[in-house]
Every structure is written in structure tokens, then in C-alpha cells.
TrEMBL record, chains A, B, C, D, E, F:
GO terms for biological process: putrescine biosynthetic process from arginine, via agmatine. Keywords: Hydrolase, Manganese, Metal-binding. Belongs to the arginase family. Agmatinase subfamily. The keyword Manganese applies. The lineage of its organism: Archaea, Thermoproteota, Thermoprotei, Desulfurococcales, Desulfurococcaceae. It holds the Pfam family Arginase. This is Agmatinase. GO terms for molecular function: agmatinase activity; metal ion binding.
């Protein structure tokens, strides 16, 4: 990993996800933390999320909910965190890009523990370099499609727009977005060949959107899933930068994910968790569970050898 | 506003709702904070709610959920807070009455940021002076129909009874009440010409109650909506004086509101939020969203010129 | 109560459940707190739960949700707490057994305010001595069926296995379990004559499991219900030792309980509440409500004289 | 206690101070809680303080710091709390007056667990009726000498002025006051025959003020000590309504108290503790300790039979 | 203020310091908030500090501690906050520089409400442009003299070194620094013509350092005071990014300030307060008090017309 | 370490103290965490302390306060935590004994990160096996000399008595104890050949006790220092099980330690930190600093090669 290695803080400084660190040869999955926390406008604190997610993950049982696979057999390689450049978002995003590119070149299926949503710019840039017809599936209460926010171009309110501007992304699909501004709504309309928005409010997104989303992503060669935890209702995910009421519930999210994820899914990021507002750590516990479930769906899709918990 | 003006703390001491203060000529809506916090028996702290609701409102996007209206065009006049008389509920209620009466005389559609539920006495008294056949729609886990509580007549446990006693209210309709006492149940039965109770527990009130409520309010000339946030399940609204389990979810509340609100709705109060128990401010975020949605429904009903966010 | 009395801390040190202490002759129900908090592996703090549940219970209205019974007529005898032996789980469990046996001998219907789940071992042992064909209905996100955990045999992760090993329990039925390990899944399979698991994730368990559970318990002479609050989704019950996402909602839990409880139900315990993580006390409020509702269902089943709140 | 008894909530609803309730014949000391919380302007929540002080007191060891007396022999009678009239400060103050007068008539040495500072009005009124030449020693960061505050006469900012206006208090002495307004400073100057102010900021008040204070109180027949916990630095007492920096430390407070208290001291109140802001309960722990130490000083002064812890 | 004005968020969005906004002609003092929060490595959240300081300031009494001046006569102009560029520290620092330069050109005495310590770079750059022989007095537990930190040049750990590198600062004096690294200690030694360090740990810095500091600053034409709140012991100032034990107490800080401040003092910044860790807001209360006291010392030095609180 | 190794959780699960793990050959110091949390009677939660202390230690600068030694050169070996047996204090204490004995046999200077105070029994037993004339220096607000507590023999209230009973300890010296019971005071008096108590309350213990303590320990061949963090005033160390007011300040503690520690000091434990009550982590920060300072004093005493930070 040459240069990439320079930007990763040594593993022994962090407890591994789930409490063990599986050798790369035995698992397709790599965990990498990205404690970016640099452009928040309201609250801040999501740099502490990778540690918090890992911490809660060690109390999680390893039989998956969606398909009863025993994750213990397969597990995750956990590389630790990418070292952020304090106060310098451009450098930080560049480091993210280098590390993710290196991991994708090595054929890893990646789970990113954010960090603020802006990190998706760096990682998607790497993703778009590696794969043809790259697509981005965004679960977010917001669209993050502003052109500029408080005078800067790279931040959590503009990140998806920057990706559309700067990469060859084929399709950006938003699921569960509900809090939008006029500026974003106009821009999305204008870009409606590239951007699909499944706007919903309330606890359940009708499952019949699945077919339309599948159609949207039918020409994608590779899919990047970005989960801004504020897509979920604050009852279930209170510990985020901007809690937006009337979100989906986690059951609905898992149902949708289990029908959309297939072998084209290479990167998943989970962003915007803010532990200092996450009383009783319920948001981090939920993030840990979501990662396990996505991994289980991928194991099924990838047809990896596995065992089941029988109940 | 002559005398009323004396009781309002100067606007520049408070950040306006949504972060901007629209001129009265351009919007029918007036925000007024009422930090009453004087008669609580269990916890206290709801005097800090107006500030907390305004604070969270500044992170809210302005396209409404229920009908996609762009609120930025219309906005709200925010007058700041009514100054409470410390330890003197009678004087405080009188000031509330004077200010609300003055605003209604000026034809404003009012949103009150409470404060404890007792404030509804003062504002409804003004309301009942201005309008013929005034009605009160109460969303509350409780009935607040006790005759006396710990030896006093004016407090959060007696407020609706006092309104029935002291005003010419035509109809009081409770929606979502679930935690009641024998005393209240007996009283309500006795007054069943005037009082309707739609008691429910659990997340969803069947929408078919709407027709019955519509019938109940058919003879009302003007409607006052009082939302005690404890009507909502504590999962979604933990920051209240008395969290009562098994409440409705916010989606259900918005659905009901969107079918009941019409041009007869003049005042809405949102009461009992207690910020010090509102971890991650989710209750205040929800209150901000509810206000925006009610305003949007009113804009539609009142046929005000507007623009839409198109998604 | 002879020896049993020695282990109970004098009543006047604790506020009674609901704020009043009904004489034993007027109510079949006895409340007993068990502040066991000795074997936690992740967090701790559930020794403070009995006090917290009692505290919140005093703000609860006394008309039941499920059947509108006025609980004030009947009420609860509240004996206070069993004194735990610090650092000595064996002695603590023995004291629990002695007290519960004594109460059952006196024909009391018991509600236990936990305390960690391990206490169920002591109380079920007593239960299994008194009743023939005793059964255990467990509501828990977990199975607690490990043989050993961190080198010990008696703790919250092994408690149900120990009960199966050490008592003549006829049937153990798990409802709502979702987070399991391979070890537990294998053991349960092996013991499938004795153990039934209704595994579910998500907010609603289909009510049609009721018939199957009824069949499972058809040969039981007496039923012990153990409610580990983590069976409920952390949105509704954040204040527990190990919040496990994707749990059932409280409405669903009450619906299931109201169809399963009958005169064979003698003991109910509510365990694992951890007040220091229970922001706004919503978990304790919910526990108080669950106890009132179970008591109301029992009043109906036992055909005790009662009055109704009429609404 | 006739009428007084009507206003006291039954004892069994509260855990006694120190965890035991000594018979009146064996101890001169009576504890009474006054959960007044009605006129706060900034924060609120001090109605929960009596419960919090009692709760922490049960973890306190019973050998006094100042003179090594074993408090266990003597202990306290704990009557529980006076029931406040929600939202009605005049009625609440009247109840306080009636109860305190009754207790003083019975010759009790009283410790009041507040509640907001305004309660001192009610209790001092009783005190001034019973004793000739009554004096008031106030430990407070503030003077509470405003004539009116936000339009009312009875609140935490005016309480001492009201006492000077409405009672025959001989002398009011402030110790440790530091945060004053021009209005108060002018008023105090005007009343300098009656009012002495020992203004200080910083951790230690020089002990040589003692002689001057002694001179000030030389003609007093009975002394009432009112301790607003904000006199102490917020490092030691964070859980108060208005934390004022640069306060005295608790060691200094105890030193001063131990030199000023004598047999003329009949009532001590400890006010303004706000548990929801009292993280780790350190302010309540400190209040418990202060009460024990004052009692020990009184035991010495009153020459009561006692035993000592010998170390 | 031309360009500077562009970067200031409109005043009506913020409550003014002390609750009133004095006209510029009547006061030499200008308050400006700088919510910079971009380069934190451990915790974050200091963007919320300006709002928190203003909020607590409204409960502060206006007679100063150090010299009894009535601040109400003079007060402060409060311009609101400088708008930070999310994720872009260079642009943010430039805006700070422009605004501070503009204010100094207008002859204002400035109080900056931080924000992270890095902001001092922007404001000192402006300061060093305006004044000859500019000096910097730093109160900080740390030296912030690293050359680079996690790969970037501008952050809270390097800010003072950057100032030494990039400006014509005549002298940098550290008071109360205690937590230093070898790298910083070596650098400071090397620069000992320019840098003086008064390293201390424990609650009181001996006042006799004053003469040495006075000597150090004797050739300075203008003095900038930067107060990193972590210089104070965490008992008094818990709400900071990096609480460092064994700090000075606030009394000592005020004593030192009152002997060092004279008419050469033009800018004071108060940085690193992190409200989400500032339980009971004690750190913000202390910051408000420090500002009032520094203003009072300046009023005395500047010989401005004033009145005194007489006690 | 044979058997000892079995009880230690693998290092890579924990971030090392100070963020790096020095090879045993280069440092005499070994860190070992003991998350015992089993016998608490009031609060619980100190099992999370080892992680919290390590976490804060990574933000600490490495030049010592007391003697300016650069700790980076020497550092610490950090072995991780001893695995506790849930609910089984006897087994847990045995594991502690085995591990500590093994480390002492290997000549390590040990720092224990507790855990509740009871752990000192296990580690001192090992200590007393290895060394002749072993002595115990206890810094604690309490004496922990009860014979039994709530019916058990091994808990935080009896631990020092058990050590006196069960080991050949030569001398037990208490420093800073202030909260004692009659039972303890009598016992201590009886054992006054073996037990010395330097009882104090208030912020500073006069340094002249040093000579008397030195005399007390003159015949000791090896010294074990046990620091119950509640010895320190709760202003500085709020995050403990039982905050006891009127404690010493950290400056005083370091002064005393720096005069008492010499080459006979082999083990130091720091116990009773309870992170969930440790707002802003100030207690853990302080513990980290205390460890660094004790190590620095030992480096000086042991005459190890070292470098100094020069300021
Ligand atoms: Mn986003
Ligand atoms: Mn978002
Ligand atoms: Mn209500
Ligand atoms: Mn209500
Ligand atoms: Mn369980
Ligand atoms: Mn469980
Ligand atoms: Mn006061
Ligand atoms: Mn005060
Ligand atoms: Mn700094
Ligand atoms: Mn610093
Ligand atoms: Mn101890
Ligand atoms: Mn202790």
C-alpha cells in the first residue's frame, strides 16, 4: 500500500471492529475509519465516531438478522483510521482518495466508518477512477447538493454536488431524502438524467420503489453506498449532526438494502454519527448492526463459503 | 400593540425562528415565545424551550414535507418572548391574554412556543373573546381536567378544566390522550356535550377518526390547536415534563393535522418541551418541523401566493 | 416471612411504587426490588433501577391502557428491596430465592423490579420449587444461553442456561430474541423439546405467533414472565445494559402480553434497566406502564372486583 | 401540628435524610424539605433538590469533620416535604410559614432542604414571629435585594428585600456576596444600619471578618442562617440555578460557620441546588456534609450528650 | 467596514453579550464572536462557544469584582459572529484578519469570543499590521509551538509558532503553561530572545512574576492577550477541548490580569471553550466574568468616565 | 507469565497508555488494567475506567511537571487488562493476585488502572508474598475498614481490613482520609501499632506530616501505594463512586507523593474512577497525569538514564 500506508494510524492504537482482526486472506471485507470533522456548521464531534462504532460492535452477537449467517467465520480486516490533516480539508480528502484507491486496487470490499459526509468526495473519487460506470446510492435526509455553503465548496452541504461536478458518476440515487432546499430541488430537476430522488418522510418507504431503483442502477458497473445516518428517524439515531424528524426506521432501511445490494457493491460508508450527542450509544450500536447485515447480504451475493446459525 | 408591547422582550435579544424575521406585511404568521415554567410538579425547565426551538429551527430546510411548499418565500414574523412574572401565574396568564388578544385583533395567525401547558389558559381566553363559537383541539397524552392539583386551581393538570369553566368554549376535542385519572374520566363523561375524547395508545391513530372530529368541529367558527408534545411517543419526543409511553408517532400526527386544519385555525401552541431532558435536541427539531408543516397546510388553505419545491 | 424478612431493606427507605403502599389484604400484587448489579461485562448501573422505576411511577395515571381498569382501587403492596451481597452473586441469588419462595408461599402475585437479568435464576428457582410444571416466558433481545462467560457460570449471559440445567423447568419460550451467537443457537437446537425460540427483528411480531406460544405453554401449571427491557427497540428503551437495534415496539409487547397472560402467571420480572443511560427516564416510565398493564390484565383474568375509567 | 400537618407530604414517600428517621425525643434536629421552584428566571429544577440531598446523604459517613462527633447517636427527625401549591407563590409561602412556625413552637432546631431561595421569606416570617430580635445571616453570591424583578415582588431576586420590608428583622448580614447590581448596592447603602455586607470574591474569606460579624449579631436573640449554595465556587457546587464564578471554597465556609454558630441558631436553610445540572451529584453531597457539620457544631454548643469518633 | 461587513453574520441573529447592545459612540469595547472549529484533534465543538458565552452573560451582575465599576453605564457593542468558511482554515483566518484589522482601524478595543485557538493567527496578523512592536501575552496550559501537527501547519497545536514565523511580533510571553513537549521546549529555548515562558503548575502563580513580565513587555507598543481557557484548572473550566489538570485558579488569573493590563491592551481573545462538555455552563459563566473584569480594568486604565457600585 | 497470561485480554484490543507501547527492556514500568466492578453499593461503572484513562492519556504532553523529565524516552509497557470473572469476586481477586505476582517476579514497577478499590486485596496479596516487610500507603477519603458490608466480606468498604487480616502487612498508613464511621474509628484505634491515619479535610494537607509518615514507613522494605481518587476533592475528581466533599487538591497530592516515593515503591494502583459520572473526563485526565508524575519521581529515584525538557 506504499503511500497509502503513510496515512493510516497504526492498528494497535484501536480496538478492531467486533473485537477481532481477521486476516485479509480469510475475508473480503476491510474496515477503515475516517475521522473527518472539519466543515460542520451546526454541531461537531463526528471524529469520535469510528472509535465509538468499534466500541459498541464488541457487544454485538454475530449471527446476522437478515439471513442468519454466522459472521464469526468470516469477520473483517480492520486497518484502523486514516489520519486527517487538521483544518485542511483538501489534503484530508486527498489522503482518503489515496487510501481507498489503494484498497480497491487490492480488491477489497470496503466499509468506511465516518466522519462527516464530506469524506464521500475523497472515497468516491477513488471509486470512480477504478470502476467504469460508477454509481452512488445515497441514503440521507438531505441532498447535500448546494453549490456553496458559507463561502466554501467542500463541505457536508455540497459534497454530492461536488461529486457530480468532478467525477464521471453515472447515476446518483437518493433514497429517503426529505429535508431539501429550493436551490437543491432546482438543481436536481435540471440534472434529472443523472440524479434520481426518492423523497419520503415517515417511517416506511414503500418497498415498491425497489423496482424503480433497480432500473436506475441497471447500467451501473459498480455501486457505492453512502449512508448518512440522519436518513433514519432521530428516535433510532439521535447521535447525528443534524437530527431531521420524520425519518425511516431501521427495519425499513435493512429491507431496502437487502434487496438492492449485489456483487456490484464495493464501498459502503456510514457517516455523520456524533457520539457526544449519542446518549446510550444507540446510534453507534445501530451502525454496527447495519455493517454486519450488509456484510451478510454481500456474503450471500458473493457466494462465499459460510455457516448459518440455525434458529 | 400599546400595552401588549410592554410585556414582550425586545426582539434583538432572540434569534428569530428559522434565522430570519419576515416583515408582517409579507406573512400572515407570527411567532411568539411564552417561557412559562411555574407550576410544574415533577420536573421543570420548559422556560428554555422557546430558545431551543428557535435554535434548532435554523438548521431546518424550508421545503415542507406535507405539500412541498417553499416556506422561504413567506416566512414568519418573530416577536420574541412574552416576559413572565416570576412566581405569579395569574399575572403571567394576564400578560399572555393581553398579548394574544392584541395579535388576534391585528389579524395574525399565531404560533406559540411554550412554556408549560398552563399558558393555554391565557391565550385561549383571548381567543374566546375575539371569536364566536371558539373551539379547542388538544393533542395531549393527558386530559389536564383535574379540578385542583396540590391545592391550586391554575396549573398544567387543571388547565383545560379551567378553560371549560371560565370561557365560552364551544367544543373541546382531545386527540391521542391516553393517561387519564378516574376523576378526569368522570368529569369528561359528565361534560360529554362539550368534551370529546379520542383516546388512543400506540403509534397510529386510525385516520377514520377524522370524520368524527370534523363533525365535532362543524359548528366552530374558529379553532385553537394546542399540542402538548407528550402526545407523541417519548422515542420521538423525549424532552418533555412527563414522558408517557405508548404515544403516537410524528407521521401520524402530521397526517391528522393535515386533514383537520383549515382557515378557521388561528392559534397553535406547542407546549411542555423541556430542553434539559431533550438530549440531542430531537424534541425541539420535531417542534420546528411541526410548525413549518402546519404553516404549509395553512398556506394551502388560505390560498396564499407561493412557490413549490419540485421533487 | 421469617428469614426472608432479614434480607429486605426496610420499606420506609423507599418511596412505594405509584406513591402509595396498599395493604396486602386488599391487593394480590407485591412489588419487590432486586438491585442486583454484579456481573455486567459492558456497562453497569442497573442497581439504581428499582428506585428509578418507583420514582417515575409516581407520575403515571392509574387507568390502564389495555382494559381501562382503575388501578387505584387495587394498587400494590411494595416491600422495598432485597439487600444484595456486594460482590457475592451466589449469596445474592440465595437471598432472592428465599424471599421469592416466601412470597409465593403466601400466595402473592409478584412483580420484580431488577436489577440485572441474572436475578431470574434465584427467583425462578423458588418458583420451580413451589409450582409443578413451571414454565418461563422470556422477552429478551438475547438468549442468555451461554454455558460460561469470561470464566464464570452465573451471569447475565448464562442465566437462562443455568435455569435449564438446575431446575425442573418444563418449557422455556423466548419471544423477540434477535441477537444470538452460534453457541446459543446450537444449544437451543439441541434442547428443542424444552426450548422454543420466536426470533424476530423489527418493530412488530406478528400476532399469529400467539397460537403457537399458547400451544407451547398448554401443559404449564404456572408461568414466570421475564422481561429483559432490551427486547424493546432502543428508541423506546435506551436505558439498558446492551442496546440492541431492531427491537419490537412497546405497543406490540403489550398486545402480545395481553393475549398470553392468564391466571397461571405468578411472577413477572423487569430487568436490565440502567438509569444512568436512561436519559429523560423514558425506559423507567415505560417499565412502570408495563407493570400497570400486566396487573390490569391479571385483574381481568383473576376476576377481581374492580371499577373502570369510562372513556 | 394541626394545620401544619396538612401541608406535609407523608413521610413514607421519601427516604429519610441519612437513611434513618430518629424519634423526635432523641434529637433536637428536624429536617423538612421545601421543593419550591416557581420563580426562576434562568434555569429551573430545584424542586428535585430535597430528594437528591437525601439520596446522597445515605452514602455519607457519620463522624463529623469539624469536631469528630458521631452523628449516628443523635440523628435527625425527617418530616418529609412541604407540599407546594403549583404556580401560586403566595399560598406556597404561607404554607411554609405555617409549618415552620409550628415546628419552632415545638422547640425544634430546623434544617430546610430547598427549593429556591424565595422560600426563606416564608420561613423567616415564622421565625420573626417567634423570636425577639431575629437576625438573618445570608451566604449568597448575590444580594437578592431588588425591589421587583420582571414585574413581581416575590422571587429569588427580591427575597431578602421583602424580608427587610415585611418583618422586624434586626440585622441582615451577607457573607461572601460578590455579584451585585447598582440598584442593590444603593439600597444596601441606604439601609446600612440594618444591612451589613461582607463582599468577597475568591476562594477564602479572611477569618478576621468573624469578629466584625460577631459584633453585628451581638444584639440578636435568635439567628437564621440561609445558605444559597451559589456562594460556593461552581467548581465545588456546579448544580445551582446561577453559577457565579470566583466563590469561596467549602473549607472556608465550614470554618466560618464553625465560628459563628451558637445556641441562638434555630433555622438553617440550604437553597438553590438544581440536581439536573449537578453532574455526579457533588453539590448534593456537599449540602449533606454541610448539614452534618452544622448539626455537630450545634451539638457542641448545646452541650448535648454525645460520643466521639477517635482518630 | 466595507469588506469586513460581508463576513459578519447579522446581529439580530444573536443575543448580545450581557443582553444589550451599546452604541459604539458610548463604549470603546467591541465584542465579536469567531466560531472557528476546524482543526481539533481530540474533541470538537467550540463553534458553539460564542452563543454559550453570550447566553450565560445575561445572568451576570454588572458591578465588577476587581474595582467595583458599574459596567451598565458603558457596556459593549456586540457585532455578532464572523462567518467561518467550513473546512477551509486559510479562508477563515483571512476573514478574521480582515474583520479585526477593520475594527482596529476604527480604534475599537476588541474582545473575541472563540472558537479554537487557531483563530489567534488571523487576529494577531491584523494586530501586527496595525501596531508597531506588537506583543502577545498567552495564557495557556500548552505552548502551541509545534511546527506541524498531523501533517498541517495551521492548527491549535502550531498556532503560536506560526505567529512567530509569520509576523513581526516583538515578544511572546506564556503564563501558566504546564503541558509541554520536548519539541516545543527545544524550540522555545532556541527563540529565547523572543519567547518567555512562565511555566507553572498548581493553583497559584506567585504574584512576583509580575515584575519580570512587566520587564518583558516594557518595549511593547501594543499588547494582545490570548486566553486559552485550559490555562485554568479543569475544576473551574471543565468545558474545554483538552482539560489539563493542575491549572491556576480564576482568582489568581484575575489578580495577574489586573496587574498586567494597561492602555496598551487592544485585543483579548478567549478561546477553546467547548459547551457540549461544559456541564452547568460554568466555563462560559467564568468567561463572561473574565471579560467584564478585563473591561473594568481597562476602564480604569483609560480613565473613562464611570460610576461605582458602593459596597 | 504462563498462567498469568491466560487472564490478560490481548493487547491489541486496547489502545496503549499514552498511545504507544514501549518494549519491556526499555522501561521498568508496566501498566495493567483491572476493570473490577462487582461490589459497588451506591453507583457502579468503574469497569470502564481503564479504557477512559488510556483514552485521555493520549492527549497528555510528556514532560513531567514535578521534575521536567521527558517521559517519551522511557514510556510504559501496557499489557492490557486482566479479565474479570463476572459476578465472582473471589475468582477475580485470585486472577489479580496471579498476574501481579508474576509481574513482580519479573521485576516490573507496576501501575494498576482500576477498577473498584476491592482489587487492592488481590494485588496486595501478591505484593506481600514477594516482599518482606510490605507496607501499604492508602490515599482515600474513606478507611474501607469495615468488617462486613451488607453481609459480605470482600468489597470496597472492607478491603483494607481484609488486607490487615489476611496478609503480613507491616504498616498501613492512611493519608487524607476524612469520612469515617465509628466502627472503623474503633478498629483503627485498636490496631494502632499497625495502622496510622492522617485524617484531614480541606484542600491542603500540611507538608509537615511527611516526616511522620517517613518515620512510619522507615522499617518497610517495599511500599504499595493505593490511590482511591475520592481522596481528591470532587471539584477535581467528580467521576468517582462516592464523591466526598472537602478533599485535598491535586497539587497537594503531587507534593506529598514527590516526597514519599522512593525506590521501595513497586506498585501503584489508581481506583474508583467511574467514567459515566466523569463529565468532560477530567478525573481520567488527572489520573493520567498522576501516573506520569509518579513515574517521573521513580525515574529520578531509580537513577535511570533520561533527558529533560528545558524550560
Ligand atoms: Mn449528508
Ligand atoms: Mn444528512
Ligand atoms: Mn398537557
Ligand atoms: Mn401532557
Ligand atoms: Mn437478558
Ligand atoms: Mn438482553
Ligand atoms: Mn439567593
Ligand atoms: Mn444566589
Ligand atoms: Mn492553546
Ligand atoms: Mn491549551
Ligand atoms: Mn476506597
Ligand atoms: Mn473512597
Amino acid at each position: 500500500m506504499a503511500e497509502a500506508g503513510l496515512y493510516i494510524s497504526p492498528l494497535e492504537d484501536y480496538s478492531a471492529f467486533l473485537g477481532f482482526n481477521r486476516d485479509r486472506k480469510k475475508t473480503p471485507f476491510t474496515i477503515i475509519g475516517i475521522p473527518l470533522d472539519i466543515s460542520s456548521s451546526y454541531r461537531s464531534g463526528c471524529s469520535l465516531a469510528p472509535q465509538s462504532i468499534r466500541n459498541t460492535s464488541r457487544s454485538i452477537e454475530l449471527c446476522s438478522f437478515v439471513n442468519n449467517i454466522n459472521l464469526e467465520d468470516i469477520g473483517f480486516e480492520d486497518l484502523g483510521n486514516i489520519i486527517m490533516a487538521p483544518g485542511d480539508i483538501i489534503t484530508s480528502l486527498k489522503r482518503i482518495e489515496i487510501v481507498i484507491e489503494s484498497l480497491l486496487n487490492e480488491g477489497r470490499r470496503i466499509f468506511i466508518l465516518g466522519g462527516e459526509h464530506t469524506l464521500t468526495y475523497g472515497s468516491f473519487k477513488a471509486f470512480a477512477k477504478i470502476f467504469k460506470n460508477p454509481c452512488l446510492l445515497v441514503f440521507d435526509a438531505h441532498l447535500d447538493l448546494r453549490d456553496e455553503y458559507l463561502g466554501t465548496k467542500f463541505n457536508h452541504a455540497t459534497v454530492i454536488r461536488r461529486i457530480i461536478d468532478d467525477t464521471n458518476v453515472l447515476k446518483v440515487i437518493f433514497i429517503g431524502s426529505r429535508a431539501i432546499s429550493m436551490e437543491e430541488s432546482s438543481y436536481a430537476l435540471e440534472k434529472n438524467d443523472k440524479v434520481s430522488i426518492y423523497r419520503f418522510w415517515g417511517s416506511r418507504i414503500p418497498i415498491d420503489i425497489i423496482d424503480r431503483v433497480r432500473e436506475d442502477i441497471s447500467r451501473c458497473d459498480a455501486i457505492y453506498i453512502s449512508i448518512d445516518m440522519d436518513v433514519i428517524d432521530p428516535a433510532y439515531a439521535p447521535g447525528v449532526q443534524t437530527p431531521e424528524p420524520l425519518g425511516i426506521d431501521p427495519q425499513n432501511l435493512l429491507q431496502i438494502l437487502s434487496r438492492l445490494i449485489d456483487t456490484r457493491t464495493w464501498v459502503t460508508d456510514i457517516v455523520e454519527i456524533t457520539p457526544v450527542y449519542d446518549h446510550s450509544e444507540t446510534t453507534s450500536f445501530l451502525a454496527s448492526r447495519i455493517i454486519i447485515e450488509i456484510a451478510s447480504i454481500l456474503i450471500e451475493s458473493l457466494n462465499i463459503e459460510k455457516s448459518y446459525c440455525k434458529i
